[in-house]
Amino acid sequence: xxxxxxxxxxxxxxxxxxxxxxxxxxxxxxxxxxxxxxxxxxxxxxxxxxxxxxxxxxxxxxxxxxxxxxxxxxxxxxxxxxxxxxxxxxxxxxxxxxxxxxxxxxxxxxxxxxxxxxxxxxxxxxxxxxxxxxxxxxxxxxxxxxxxxxxxxxxxxxxxxxxxxxxxxxxxxxxxxxxxxxxxxxxxxxxxxxxxxxxxxxxxxxxxxxxxxxxxxxxxxxxxxxxxxxxxxxxxxxxxxxxxxxxxxxxxxxxxxxxxxxxxxxxxxxxxxxxxxx
Length: 278
Description:
- It is built from ten helices and three strands, in the order H-E-E-E-H-H-H-H-H-H-H-H-H.
- The protein is mostly helical.
- It has two domains: 10-71, no CATH class; 92-252, no CATH class.
- Helix 2 (83-117) packs antiparallel against helix 3, helix 5 (159-184) runs antiparallel to helix 6 (188-200) and helix 6 crosses helix 8 (215-234).
- Residues 274-278 have low confidence and may be disordered.
């Protein structure tokens, strides 16, 4: 599943924000066999090949090199690229969505505490915050109907019901926070957790849509289903399409590091010639 247009290079976009991976920039001496990764210039600079985006970067010779020579090909860096990098971009996008949910539910927790047990002068502000959090929760995930209905009726809740609502909001905040943090860090178990959380709320989602159909609820349902299908199908979770072993083989086959470490790109640059030929 390709997530960017064919003519885009996600590697170049990633390098533009995270920096290039140029091992030839970290050594004192480039040997003849290192020509696939670096080329010396006569002006105390060198062209260094990025192992992520395959571009050649003009850099100054290192003043404090990490080593004398480049390591063996098997010991060179192996940054994510190709399908693996595209999937990181998507997973981090999902993590951002989860992080926003966590913030909203955390605000709801604070508002409930203030409204039920805080100073009377703060209750109007808490009521406004509760209503905003409820509207956001309702639009972002239709399965949150129980939380939304509780937030809408918070002024009429007794202490026991308020505690239940507080526990529900806090549980959502913790769950979404865990998903956000560990999806961003690329933990595969967090992908399983996200799938389970989304699937568990599908019955509530259907119930919420039956009660009231809105554009935001339909959009929220579409986003949740897209996340569910993407994770299960593309990441091969729960044994789908061969499971984890097939996924690892796919990622390994997409990037032949032995070939990349030993062979320069087709459009290999050459060191500039003198301006005054003999």
